[in-house]
């Protein structure tokens, strides 16, 4: 059996694949791995989002770093690779709370929860919905997306790898 | 299991990390009012391997030198004492920080990536808040988890039940280490740092990095490393089996006079600094 090419999507990166291959985000903490697929065009992508919102007074070095720039950038790159906006389906994982917070900790320090909300809001603004999601908790997650089968799987340190959803299903 | 003394742990642990005498000499020398490029270079030259590694780093594209730096003294003059001090510590700690620690579920390079990230984050926080010397903050961050190297063999095969105990008793992992072993990795790290005669504030920052509110009033380094650890862990840099099992004390923001609204900018500044440094120091973050 041929081994599929595997692409690790590093921090703040967006990767696009046409046809076959595996996209993955390793060891997500509060970051979000956002997957998208146009099954008909065979075009898929993954973004590794780190913070909720870009700063008004700082240039955006890599749009994938922020939810509010990463979501539109992922969609634009998918379209440039031949995907159609109205066929795109999405799934995401990550957004963990990486520490137990003391009583004196402001909720703003929960970057994972804020990332989760920011990605949802960005998708909603563009009229997209998620087909699968697993966020929050105090789990580090590794996310893999088999572009050909559409299957998205999540692995955590303490639990066996499991299916999150199938974007072709 | 009977609890251990710190001396037991140190005496009975094979393969303990050591800091080369030359690196310790550089650290001590750079703190003296009388230090000069010549005296620092003399310390570096005690260890040929260390001084060549520093020259290699000094000549890397990161520093953008227009000409080749060829002697230890020249590297001190051009890069400055603080940079040389940090380079000496990075070059000395890399051999043991890049090892895998199976007891803690850390793959090869994970401890290095995490330690280096916490070093860069600590330096960034110190620069932005002006609450500590950035170069001292870098070293505190880099060394904060070195106690894990000594405790690793003692918790081998115990991490799964220890994590279960965290959940059952709703306690952070360092509290479980203290319960099971008598000491946590921060205590052991501070003990090692003390045995190397590292400066006392640095030793205390290592010792209190998970309990920053217990650090002596007025000492900000432990709070800086605590916040830096939050950033590096949030971004999944060098995760291990005990990741996500610690407590974060938001009170450190007050200690460091950081408004809540500024934490994202600080996290972003850290990421930018980390990206600049990671190629130079061979760090691989997922």
Word description of this protein:
The complex is a heterodimer of chains A (169) and B (286). By secondary structure, chain A is α+β, with helices and mostly antiparallel strands. Helices cover 17% and strands 36% of the residues of chain A. Chain A contains two helices and eleven strands; from the N terminus they run βββββαββαββββ. Chain A has helices at residues 67-80, 111-125, and strands at residues 6-8, 14-18, 22-28, 32-38, 43-49, 89-94, 100-101, 130-135, 141-146, 151-156, 162-166. In chain A, the strands form two sheets. Chain A has a five-stranded mixed sheet, with no helix packed on it. In chain A, strands 2-5-4-6-8 form a five-stranded mixed sheet, covered by helices on one side. In chain A, a hairpin with a 4-residue loop joins β4 and β5 (43-49). The longest helix of chain A has 15 residues, at 111-125. The radius of gyration of chain A is 15 Å and the shape is globular. Chain A starts with 5 loop residues before the first strand and ends with a strand. In chain A, 50% of the residues are buried. With 286 residues, chain B is an all-alpha fold. Helices cover 61% and strands 1% of the residues of chain B. Chain B contains 16 helices and one strand. Chain B has helices at residues 6-12, 21-30, 37-44, 48-58, 72-79, 81-97, 110-129, 134-143, 147-155, 159-169, 173-181, 185-195, 200-207, 221-234, 251-255, 263-278; one strand at 247-248. In chain B, α2 (21-30) packs antiparallel against α3. The radius of gyration of chain B is 19 Å and the shape is globular. The model of chain B has no long low-confidence stretch (mean pLDDT 89). The chains are: A alpha+beta (169), B mainly alpha (286). At the A-B interface, β3 and β7 of A face α14, β1 and α16 of B. β7 (100-101) of chain A pairs parallel with β1 of chain B, so a sheet runs across the interface.
């Amino acid at each position: 059996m041929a081994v599929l090419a595997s692409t690790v999507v590093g921090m703040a990166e967006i990767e696009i694949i046409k046809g076959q291959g595996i996209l993955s985000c390793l060891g997500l903490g509060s970051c979000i791995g956002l997957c998208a697929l146009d099954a008909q065009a065979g075009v898929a992508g993954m973004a590794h989002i780190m913070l909720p919102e870009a700063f008004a007074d700082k240039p955006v070095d890599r749009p994938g770093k922020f939810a509010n720039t990463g979501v539109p950038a992922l969609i634009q790159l998918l379209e440039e690779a031949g995907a159609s906006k109205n066929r795109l389906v999405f799934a995401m994982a990550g957004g963990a709370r990486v520490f137990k917070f003391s009583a004196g900790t402001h909720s703003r320090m929960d970057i994972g929860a804020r990332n989760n909300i920011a990605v949802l809001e960005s998708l909603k603004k563009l009229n997209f919905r998620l087909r699968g999601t697993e966020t929050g908790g105090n789990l580090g997650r590794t996310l893999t997306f088999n572009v050909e089968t559409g299957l998205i799987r999540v692995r955590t340190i303490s639990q066996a790898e499991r299916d999150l959803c199938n974007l072709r299903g | 299991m009977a609890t251990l003394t710190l001396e037991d742990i140190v005496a009975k642990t094979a393969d303990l990390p050591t800091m080369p005498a030359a690196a310790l000499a550089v650290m001590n020398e750079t703190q003296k009012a009388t230090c000069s490029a010549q005296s620092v270079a003399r310390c570096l030259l005690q260890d040929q391997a260390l001084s060549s590694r520093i020259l290699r780093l000094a000549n890397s594209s990161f520093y953008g030198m227009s000409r080749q730096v060829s002697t230890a003294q020249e590297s001190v003059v051009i890069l400055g004492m603080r940079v040389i001090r940090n380079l000496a510590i990075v070059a000395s700690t890399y051999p043991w920080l890049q090892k895998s620690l199976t007891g803690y579920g850390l793959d090869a390079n994970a401890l290095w990536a995490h330690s280096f990230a916490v070093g860069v984050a600590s330096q960034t926080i110190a620069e932005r808040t002006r609450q500590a010397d950035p170069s001292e903050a870098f070293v505190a961050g880099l060394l904060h988890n070195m106690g894990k190297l000594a405790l690793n063999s003692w918790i081998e095969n115990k991490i799964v039940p220890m994590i279960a105990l965290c959940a059952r008793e709703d306690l952070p992992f360092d509290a479980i280490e203290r319960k099971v072993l008598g000491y946590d990795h921060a205590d052991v790290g501070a003990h090692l740092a003390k045995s190397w005669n590292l400066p006392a504030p640095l030793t205390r920052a290592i010792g209190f990095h998970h309990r920053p509110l217990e650090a002596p009033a007025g000492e900000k380094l432990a709070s800086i490393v605590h916040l830096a650890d939050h950033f590096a862990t949030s971004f999944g840099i060098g995760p291990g089996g005990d990741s996500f099992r610690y407590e974060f004390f938001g009170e450190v923001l007050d200690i460091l006079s950081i408004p809540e609204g500024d934490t994202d900018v600080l996290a972003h500044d850290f990421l930018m600094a980390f990206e600049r440094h990671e190629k130079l120091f061979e760090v691989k973050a997922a």
